[in-house]
Amino acid sequence: MTIHFDPFAPASAGHEDPYPSYAALRDEAPLHWAETTRAWVISRYDDVSTVLKNPEIFSSEAMRTVLMQGSAPDAAKDPENVQRMLALAQTLPFSLQELVGSRNLISEDPPAHGVMRSLVNRGFTPRRIQAWESRAREIVESCVAPLRGGGDFDVVHDLAIPLPVTLIAEILGVEAERMDDFKRWSDGVITGSSGSGRGLDPIETGFAAVLGEMTRYIVSVIERREREPGDDLISVLVQAREGDASLSTIDVVMFVILLLVAGNETTTNLIGNATCALLRHPDQLARVRADRSLMPGLVEEVLRYDSPIQLVFRRVTRDVEIAGRRVEA
Fold first, then answer.
1. DSSP line for 152-174
2. How many CA atoms lie within 13 A of 217 on its CB side?
3. Which of 46, 153, 169, 197 could, after both became Cys, cross-link 192 (CB 3.0–4.6 A)?
4. How many CB atoms lie within 10 A of CB 280?
5. Beta bridge partners of 327
6. Using one digit for the tens of pLDDT, what is the confidence trace for 220-267?
7. Conformation bin of residue 219: beta by default, left when phi > 0, alpha when psi is -120 to 50
8. Contact 37, 45 (CB under 8 A)
9. Do 209 and 91 form a contact (C-beta atoms < 8 A)?
10. Are 317 and 329 in contact (CB under 8 A)?
11. What is the structure's pLDDT at 194?
12. Averaged pLDDT for residues 131-154
């Protein structure tokens, strides 16, 4: 059986329902070469678990390469990729060198990852999380008020989109009037880094403009928090910029972008996926309606059953055997 699967191939019906492709990969090609992405695809649980638990062999550095529009270990040698990187850098308030050298939680390996996570965790204290949970409940109640009143209701437009955008904006301490911009920036980054605009000219697709606009705004907020700290996450991150392990301005920017894009997109899709799954399985919907204590388990099961995150990338740092085959560094 010939397997045709590539995570960054042009959109097709396979993107709407990738699970038959995953089953074919697990059964027929547990180690599969994706030519468009120029990466190996692994699909069996034990192999994936091994990769994710051994960062010294499988480095998270690949996440930076992929999200910055390159997908191969030698992306820096690709003239087209270098041109895209230069185009991106020209729209940002940072040099190309600063951009390439910036740190991001999802692209750092131990021990650097642990240091960064420790700094960022200062903003996620039990007190803050409890306050955010209460605020999240308030936002949900506001979003579903029209539904309770018998009015028209679109679960994505009226709940799944405004809930994470509003909460993340408040966590970061940004102006309420910029929430629509936050959503637009988030969608633009997703499209340009992993969606239909990936691999295309970032100027022509608008990806560079969106990234530049978002980055300049975040830098302006950081500069204000340096002068006038508040009780928000950006202020906490700015205050953590002390000592050898401190976060640079671009490190803070990258974390804010990560929180905005990853937290926004994934939460919206989780709510949408959960709704679709329950409507397609009315017996499960009936169980949850009859026993609300099942709700936490429902969320965890939807994350497994139809996850908002369909792939991650790692770079092989040395020759290794995967799924019974040799993979070179």
1. ---HIIIIITHHHHHHHHHHHT-
2. 19
3. 197
4. 9
5. 320
6. 999 999 999 998 999 998 887 665 567 889 989 989 988 888 888 899
7. alpha
8. no
9. yes
10. yes
11. 66
12. 94
